[in-house]
């Protein structure tokens, strides 16, 4: 799995719209060298096809299938939005951006799903005051 490191986590963000949320998440993936800037547009395109809101205050913005060429390496980015941002009326407090090389995104998604299937885990991540607390939540899944 793509390693989750502290520089891939942004705490306490204020985000005003779904589009801003997706762009911010995509930019973090770009800044960390996982994807080309064109991937962000593919993330927005993907959102038009079907929402990336997953329930339990979580959205997982990612590119369309044809965005694979814009992925340099698999990566994950997490943005904490304690005040929430609306994804078509659904409140999102945790944005998890993913980019997967080949089929690696499936493995990344399954690990995210394990952690985020429990609302209490999501709220623990949303309320975490350090990046290390968030990393520990995902490390438990890998043990």
Automatic annotation (TrEMBL):
Q: Where is the PTS EIIA type-2 domain?
A: 2-141
Extract the CDD domains matched here.
Answer: PTS_IIA_fru
Its GO biological process annotations read:
phosphoenolpyruvate-dependent sugar phosphotransferase system
Q: Which domain of life is it from?
A: Bacteria
Q: Output the Gene Ontology terms for molecular function.
A: kinase activity; protein-phosphocysteine-sugar phosphotransferase activity
> InterPro entries from the entry?
PTrfase/Anion_transptr, PTS_EIIA_type-2_dom, Sugar_PTS
Keyword Transport on this protein? yes
Q: Which GO terms describe its cellular component?
A: plasma membrane
What keywords does the record list, in alphabetical order? Kinase, Phosphoprotein, Phosphotransferase system, Sugar transport, Transferase, Transport
Q: What does this protein do?
A: The phosphoenolpyruvate-dependent sugar phosphotransferase system (sugar PTS), a major carbohydrate active transport system, catalyzes the phosphorylation of incoming sugar substrates concomitantly with their translocation across the cell membrane. The enzyme II CmtAB PTS system is involved in D-mannitol transport.
Please report the name of this protein according to its UniProt entry.
Mannitol-specific phosphotransferase enzyme IIA component
Q: What is the lineage of its organism?
A: Bacteria, Bacillati, Bacillota, Bacilli, Bacillales
């Amino acid at each position: 799995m793509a390693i989750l490191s502290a520089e891939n986590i942004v705490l306490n963000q204020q985000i005003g719209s779904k589009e801003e949320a997706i762009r911010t998440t995509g930019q973090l993936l770009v800044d960390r060298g996982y994807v080309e800037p064109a991937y962000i547009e593919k993330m927005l395109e993907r959102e038009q096809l079907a929402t990336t809101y997953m329930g339990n205050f979580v959205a997982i913005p990612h590119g369309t299938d044809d965005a694979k060429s814009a992925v340099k390496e698999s990566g994950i980015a997490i943005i904490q939005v304690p005040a929430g941002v609306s994804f078509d009326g659904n409140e999102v407090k945790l944005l998890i951006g993913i980019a997967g090389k080949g089929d690696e995104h499936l493995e990344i998604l399954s690990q995210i799903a394990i952690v985020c299937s429990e609302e209490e885990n999501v709220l623990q991540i949303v309320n975490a005051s350090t990046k290390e607390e968030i990393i520990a939540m995902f490390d438990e899944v890998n043990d």
